[in-house]
Design a protein that fits this description.
By secondary structure, the chain is an alpha/beta fold. The longest helix is centred in the C-terminal third of the chain and has 22 residues, at 307-328. The chain has two domains: 2-120 and 307-372, NAD(P)-binding Rossmann-like Domain (Rossmann fold, 3-Layer(aba) Sandwich), CATH 3.40.50.720; 132-305, Rossmann fold. The two termini are 22 Å apart. It contains 15 helices and 15 strands. The strands form two sheets. An eight-stranded mixed beta sheet has the order 3-2-1-4-5-6-14-15, with helices on both faces. A seven-stranded mixed beta sheet has the order 9-8-7-10-11-13-12, with helices on both faces. Strand 10 (235-238), helix 10 (253-256) and strand 11 form a beta-alpha-beta unit.
Length: 373
Amino acid sequence: MLIGVPKEIKTLEHRVGLVPSSVVEFVRNGHDVLVETGAGAAINFADADYEGAGAKIASSAAEVFEKAEMIIKVKEPQPGECKMLRPDQVLFTYLHLAADPAQAQGLMDSGCTAIAYETVTAKDGRTLPLLQPMSEVAGRLSVQVGSYHLQKHKGGTGRLIGGVPGVKPAEVLIIGGGVSGFHAAQMATGLGANVTILEKSNERMRFLDEYFHGRANIVYSNVDTVERAVQTADLVIGAVLIPGASAPQLISKKMLSTMLPGAVFVDIAIDQGGCAETSKATTHDNPTYVVDGVVHYCVANMPGAVPLSSALALNHSVLPYALDLANKGWKQALSDNPNFLEGLNVCEGKITHKAVAEALDFDFNPAEESLAA
């Protein structure tokens, strides 16, 4: 199979679909890899590194899309990329379609087979192995960017996240105790903040309580606890996720008006539409805006801020699945693994993931029927 790796073109996105070490694995399995020139340059992977790994270098994205049988990317295809996709082509990348009807329609119109990293499940049916590495990065990064924007000259409250002797540390509220919330809590407690995690799952609450052992407060999440907790928080991190679906809006504009002037809200869930009524996607070159005195950080590709670490972590997780697609063909690979089949979002012009279809109010065609066809 000919694998294509175009350069990412989303604003300030410097990750790359395949790093050179992953190219080596494809070549050893008998596949050809075509990489757009400069695709990895921003993270110090030169064209020569890809050629040394066995790839060929394409002069343009158009050449990659024209020749490749499978496209491996990081972020969702932009409108111009959607127009280059075709019916006999497989796209393997993050899609986050629930908050992006225009992209969903573009993929449907292309006729391609689009498999989303973020809806592939593990054997337990709940864990998301290809979303997890970026959730880990985003969780850790949320505290880093949040503490930075707490500085007064960035519009924050002016409170040092870890405090100093005689002065209390920042109050950090994390809504959601999943992968990103857990890693945010690790960072925040490590910096000495007062941390509260709101979570709904009893099983997850017990895990968090045992892990943090008093270093973070674990509180059951409902409307009342969210309303109360946001009022005293210096930094609020939204870390909720419903696989494939739009994020629930847990923070209303009314709640926002009760928050501290200069409080910072980091919305990790913005890829899925955001978990606050006032959330709207931003970019790394203009990451924040202020509503009712609250600084909103809603960058839709947060891990792109640390692209070297992110690209390597993502490749380690994606590679076995990508090789399976190349070695077996997409139909056989998905037929062999029902959890991998959960990643199929678009096929033959139809939405094949139920949560995505419901979020978009589009017609739903079960993935099993697409395989059978």
